[in-house]
Design brief:
heterodimer, A: 0% helix, 45% strand, B: mainly beta, four-stranded antiparallel sheet, globular
Chain lengths: 110, 123
């Protein structure tokens, strides 16, 4: 069902930087804001980045978002064990007239 | 602080109607914002089901719109989801959430979310 494509998993050593890509189309990422969510095990998702690159109050500055054309990226710098979670991108799709989510990426800290 | 809590049966029989309620505390449903239902399955990930605005305007997923109804109750302290003719494919964790807009103005993110409720479709 997801039409935003993410890598299934990424991993990195503590203190490293990892990036997660989110590939969409002109009807979603290419036209509308991208939001990123972090989901810790057994918890609901939590907004991590909104409006492509804005951090909500209380979110660590180690997280950053960017967008170019029909793709977006989430970067985590200074990777920590507490960052082990699933990450999802999301956007409004003008063609479907609804929200679409990414396929999700599991981040593992080695 | 706004808090959302889903409630409803954890087990629904095939072909019957799934009905869930999202209780809202710390904020009036009449004061703006959109209120949404989202579900999560291991196989399909997160899926937006639909949203409602306090004036009753609804927006539904194209793939589910023939079976979905979202409503706000008169007391404006909860909103509900009805999904008809369920099958095993509707087995999921169902979340409710709030969002500020639909498209591009920087407020269309889901926050906060309820804790989620597991619904299993089985006879």
């Amino acid at each position: 069902q997801s039409i935003l494509t993410q890598p299934p998993s990424v991993s990195g050593a503590p203190r490293q930087r990892v990036t997660i890509s989110c590939s969409g189309s002109s009807s979603n990422i290419g036209k509308n804001a991208v939001n990123w969510y972090q989901q810790l095990p057994g918890k609901p998702p939590k907004v991590l980045i909104y409006y492509d690159d804005v951090l909500p109050s209380g979110v660590s500055g180690r997280f950053s978002g960017s967008k170019s054309g029909t793709s977006a990226s989430l970067a985590i710098s200074g990777l920590q064990s507490e960052d082990e979670a699933d990450y999802y991108c999301a956007a409004w799709d003008d063609g479907l007239n609804g929200f679409v989510f990414g396929t999700g990426t599991k981040v593992t800290v080695l | 602080q706004v808090q959302l809590q889903e409630s409803g049966p954890g087990l629904v029989k095939p072909s019957e109607t799934l009905s869930l309620t999202c209780g809202v505390s710390g904020y009036s449903l009449s004061s703006g914002y959109y209120w949404a239902w989202i579900r999560q399955t291991p196989g399909k990930g997160l899926e937006w089901i639909g949203s409602i605005y306090p004036d009753g305007t609804t927006y539904y997923s194209e793939s589910l719109k023939s079976r979905v109804t979202i409503s706000v109750d008169r007391s404006k302290i909860q909103f509900s989801l009805n999904l008809t003719s369920v099958t095993a494919a509707d087995t999921a964790v169902y979340f409710c959430a709030r969002h500020g807009s639909l498209a591009a103005d920087g407020t269309n993110y889901f926050d906060p979310w309820g804790q989620g409720t597991q619904v299993t479709v089985s006879s």
